Each structure stands twice: as structure tokens, then as C-alpha cells.
Amino acid sequence: MIAVWQRVSSASVEVEDKEIARIGAGALVLLGVETGDSDLDAAYMARKCLELRAFDDDQGRLNLSLLDTDGELLLVSQFTLCADCRKGRRPSFATAADPDTARRLYEEVAHRARTMGAKVQTGIFQAHMKIHLVNDGPVTLLIDSRKRSR
Q1: Contact 148, 43 (CB under 8 A)
Q2: Residue 121, SS3?
Q3: Domain total for the chain?
Q4: In a designed cystine with 21, which of 13, 44, 60, 102 is the match (CB 3.0 to 4.6 A)?
Q5: CATH number at residue 133
Q6: Structural domain boundaries enclosing 123
Q7: pLDDT category of residue 148 using cuts at 50, 70 and 90
Q8: d(Cα 117, Cα 111) in Å, to the nearest integer?
């Protein structure tokens, strides 16, 4: 799984000109699911997204997690993160998981995050979405479950 994790002051998702999700301070996570990803990747991604120390402590250091700050999580599926842009001008999505697997694992990340105590909002899987966000910092991090410590 690949994620773009962004610290935000606020974020929201629109589908067909209707707001379907909104969070205050916390993190917006764009999540791509690749062929071969499993429940282990989902568990890793949920834990990492909630436990990254990417929020300021009293000294202004990145020392607090989303859970420490009681922040919210907006999780949005984005298969285009799986694109391979190395050859030609058209991205290849050959490594993206099939839709049924991707949906299940995306929902598993959201479920695990909720189980860990996070306030989670989600986009709509496979919908055309408009994402609105106010980056805070900005703090933007890339997470790849295949590059996790063993």
C-alpha cells in the first residue's frame, strides 16, 4: 500500500457537488492499494497513519501523533498512487489491486483505525471526488507498506 499523509487544519470531500465527509485538525490520507497487498499491509498502514509523530508538541517539535492530539483522519482511496510513470507519457496502473480487493483493504484500514480509537471519515470508493484541504505546515509524508521495517 502506498499513502500520501498530509497534516491538515481541515479537509473535506465532495461527490457530485455534495459534501460527504469533513474533518477538522488531523490528517488527510490518500491511499493506493497494490496487487499483493494483504491484511498485514492494512494493519501496518492504519497503525502508521495514527502513530506517526507529525504534530507539534509544546516546544514546536514533531513529537505527537494523531492519537495524541485527538485529531481526525480523512481516508480517501486513490488508485492513481499506484501509477508507474517511468515509460512513455501515459501512466500504467498494472500494479493497482483489482477493485474488489482494493475496496476490502481500504475499508480494512478505516476499520482498524476506528478500532484504535481514531475519528475516521472516508471518501466513496471509486467515486469521482473533489478534495478540499488546508495543509498545516505543510507536513506531507509518503508511506509505503512494502518498505516497512521487518
Answers
A1: no
A2: strand
A3: 1
A4: 13
A5: 3.50.80.10
A6: 2-147
A7: confident
A8: 10
